[in-house]
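hey so u asked for the seq, here:
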Amino acid sequence: MFEKGGYYPPQGHKKRIARYNENKLLFKGFHHDVFERNQAFPKSDVYISINLAGLICKKSADFLFGEKPVISAGREDNSPEQEAIDRLVRDNDIPMKLQKSATGNAFRGDSFFKIRWGQKFNGKLDEKVDPYRVFIDLQNPAYVFPEASAGDATLIEKYHIAFPTVVAGSGDQNWILNVESHEPNKIVYQKFNMTPIVAKGIEVVEWKIGDEITSAYREVETEIPVPLVVHIPNYAIDDEWQGLDDVSEHKSLFDELNRRLSAIASILDKHADPAIAIPAGLLQEDEDGNPIFNVGRNKIFELMGKDDITPQYIVWNGQLASAYEEMREIKQMILLNAEIPEVALGAGDSGTSGSSGLAIKFRMNSLLAKINRKRQFYDKGLKEIFFLAQLVEHTMLGSKAGYELVPDVIIHFNDGLPRDTAEEANVMNVRSGGKPTISQKTALMRLDNLTEEQADAELKRMQEEEDAALEKQANMFATQASMQVESPLDGSKDDATKASDDKTNKDKSTDGGN
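ran it, structure tokens below
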């Protein structure tokens, strides 16, 4: 793909990279830079855009990886395999990288991960401080050039990671192309001289490849029969390796929505200080009897026939009501095509008061279906990434790795929706016949985000408080019982004393009668 006399970027990848760059501008809100060809709004006039492209991309990423996925080896929590997977996730900041990947994937359509063995600071620090380990890195898709199988366009056999760098002190005239080719069992490193041939503004966008720098050529044996790069498409079709993004199909609607918004702003600006029409004869006249006024400066018109007109401002509403209605319809079309219901944006009929979690979930069905489509590609890609990471670790460490290979890790995704815990509790109560379905320890860990040790300590304090309360209650009951027997507070007497008193009173009564 890269040799003397060729071009960078390669001819078959120019459109893909141009799409990446244009969609990134839309995602970041620079719509004018993309749609400035619009003759209705030259650069000197107002141009207002609404960044629905960024909203669409961020909403998908949030629902996909807004909550951390749980990556399991399918073994016990304290097993060496699970500890190895947890370490790979922790050391490589996988949740954060997945969020970045999903965001870029939404406007590009492609995401690439590279697995390597090395140091974080590339040998600048001592190995004791910065040890060698497995790295799972995100790659800029604009620098990745896959080669697909001749018989299956969806199967990538080789990945080239190629990026240009300018030679220091040469301005922008001398460039070096750095190429890193990932093939089965090896990685080939090359460098080429390049000459810029096409520039866009002050940025060079195309180069011609010159001589290879032979001293930079080297090969590294990986002993792994597949390339150490993994491609995860946003979603894909069956006749090409490239993924499909969430932005390209809406560009014409973005442009039309921005045009309507800009036209409305232009109309309002023009009529913020309107001209006024008055009857003839109210203005001063010159020596020839002509009214003294300048329409452009004074914004005043004098009309003939003072009985036919009263002073009034000259305005034109520009059919603003129709323009606003068109804007609403365009926005609805964009959200409909993007599979984002208004309830997900807090707009329209988005009230959820009194609605169950299941009812809200049904209203989000189109977005959840879209996220599930993306999730299938990430599930496959993450399984491959973690298997390659384990292979690299076993290749470099051998038996010192201390765990068995797990070829098929389990990815537990969340749907991104808030959980209706009350509804879940009711369902659990019905299905279990009123029996507990979760331990006190697990409940504390989930509700208060406690570690296992913190939950144990909290349970111990709870038990101590409960024992102290029971002891206090028992002592109180014992004291009350003792007081009732020895010196009752209410003046009551036991049965024997009461019977003796009754007999004495009866005898006294009899003696008095005699």
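The radius of gyration is 39 Å. DSSP finds 14 helices and 15 strands in the chain.
lmk if thats what u needed
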